[in-house]
Design a protein that fits this description.
The chain has 707 residues and is an alpha+beta fold. Among the domains are: 169 residues, Neurolysin, domain 3; 64 residues, no CATH class; 243 residues, Neurolysin, domain 3, CATH 1.10.1370.40. The chain contains 27 helices and 9 strands. The strands form 3 sheets. The protein has a 5-stranded mixed β-sheet with strand order 3-4-5-9-6, with helices on both faces. Strands 1-2 form a two-stranded antiparallel ribbon. Strand 7 and strand 8 form a beta hairpin. Helix 1 runs antiparallel to helix 2, helix 16 crosses helix 19 and helix 21 crosses helix 22. The radius of gyration is 25 Å and the shape is globular.
Amino acid sequence: MKKLIYMLAITVFAGCQTPSETSTMESTDNPFYQEWNTPYGVPPFKQITDEHYVQAFEDGMDQQLEEVEEIANNAEKATFENTIAAVEKSGELLKKVGGVFFNLTSAHTNDSLKGISRMISPKLSAHNDNIFLNSSFYQRVKSLYDQRESLGLNEEQNKLLENYHTGFVRAGAALSEEEKEKMRGLNEQLSSLTVKFGENVLNETNTFEMVLSEDQLDGLPESVKAAGADAAKERGQEGRYIFTTHRPSLYPFITYSTQRALREKLKKGYIYRGDNDDENDNKELVRQIVNIRLEKANLLGYETWADYVLQERMLNTPEKVYNLLDKVWPAAIKAAIKERDLMNAMAEKEGNDFEIMPWDWWYYSEKIKMKQYNLDENEIRPYLKVDNVINGTFTLANKLFGMTFEEQTDIPKYHPDVRTYTVKNEKGELIGVYLSDWFYRSSKRGGAWMNTFRDQSNMDGNNIIPIVTNVGNFTKPTGDTPSLLSQDEASTLFHEFGHALHGLLSECTYPSISGTSTPRDFVEFPSQVMENWVFEPEMLALYAFHYKTGEVMPAELVEKIKKAGTFNQGFGTVEYMAASYLDMAYHTITEPLAEGADIDAFEKAAMDKIGMIDAIVPRYRTGYFQHAFSGPEGYSSGYYSYLNSEVMDADAFGAFKENGLFDAATAAAYRNEILSRGGTRDAMEMYVAFRGREPEFEAILVRRGFK
């Protein structure tokens, strides 16, 4: 979720202060230079135009460098307050502009913002290097770190000092001047390449469309047809039907369409993104990215990029990651093969002579679900109206933590689809602002996520409440039909809301270690825990109401969902784990990939090594694997994190099952020891403080039906 400690300054902002009085910048009509007199300090989106970003970024970097130079050259002996706390307070203008810009480039971008991103990313990388390759600054931090045991620091201060020292060392502060210059060049190249990778994926996703006529819609439910008709109308082709590689369009089509050739065309459009040998092809970018990362890791004394990245994770070596993956993979692939064989048998019984392929899996798994469990996804969707599911998350937060969410109409928003809420605790005290943006649009990157426009902090008694956002890509309402979610989409919404709770319930002093600023392989734990409640009968009774009749989901349907709970888990686990293995394969190379290297062959070799079956493709193939090749470097070598977090979440939810689904004492312990603590303590120590012991691995195998 968050970038590394030393990157936070350019991605989130911690307050609404105006530039310091010592700044040489003159006041302008640019909103970033002004105090935001908006409700709760939410950015005044309507006043901000694309022209405002570049100057604010450049002035913000200049201002922070002046502040850092003052800290680094302070004649007084280094103290925690004049060095560590001082840098936490630096760069307010940069934090303001970065907080808005990077959220909008993900959630509501345009060609202008893309251009700014390409231009500003290398400058931000250089700015980061100017801070964390500053020898004088590093020496002050190192002097504090070396005497940390005698400074009388509290637990949070100790963790912050440790993070800064680690950040400096990992950035290359201890390198020679020649090596530092080399590091600067590598970082600049990476920043440009990863931005380009993400742009190519978005371009590929938005470009592909499959235009159909009425006679090509066999098997599609009316709601899916309506969505296709709306998409065609939006693109000026009224009377036709358009389906795209955006997930809300892709998955319903390949689940229900009886036209195998069309399922294949659409699925291939998805899995070949970034792999079409055109202007959006990402294969050469990937070769360059992994080679530069390897060179950077070697420069810092690590054998591989994964060795470098994982040093700060709970599983802190590649061997530990592979040990986790290898524990689960044999059971997962065995289950997936069994699922595939059932589908092959069904296809053969229907008179087909083909082997199940990735474009067949969703279609036949739905058929088998109907046959074995008499469970139809379209039977479930009417009870999962998006508004009801959202209200379900609010109800759960209230029952567990006493939180209330009140929708507001006067809070600024960056798009009409955004909904804004104030959030209060059990005492009625305001603790945050929450923005939700759940519907698909072409200006939004794929997937779903949580981020912050402002992190929670409480330095010098100045309590700053967080501004948290959830973003998704669910299908918009069509005609008289509201947005109805699938089981997976409902789980996704609860998952991302779990991240939001992690940000909203933070009670930390320093912004860079508040909220979701935890190790990558821990941060998914609080979000994945929330998924456990989605289809619990007690929870369904509180939010799963039929959008037409208002009736609660009937007990018979709940029972069918429960019985089908481990259905298709082999597929889900294998496609996810295959991507995890692929991520690790790229980032454990010890020699650079040669010019002209066959990236498709590299991917195939990685899949052959684990015995991947042709019926399933990795959840993310190389060409569109944004977790690994776009965005913050901490995501790379980290896709396994969801599995590590699930080990904890499966075990942790056991405490609620033992004590009661909404047990107040269990919820309080979870809030106090996990959600409120941010990254102020070692992750495993936080888990043990909540559960009383380390997590038991067996819970994940039982949950997935592998044991």
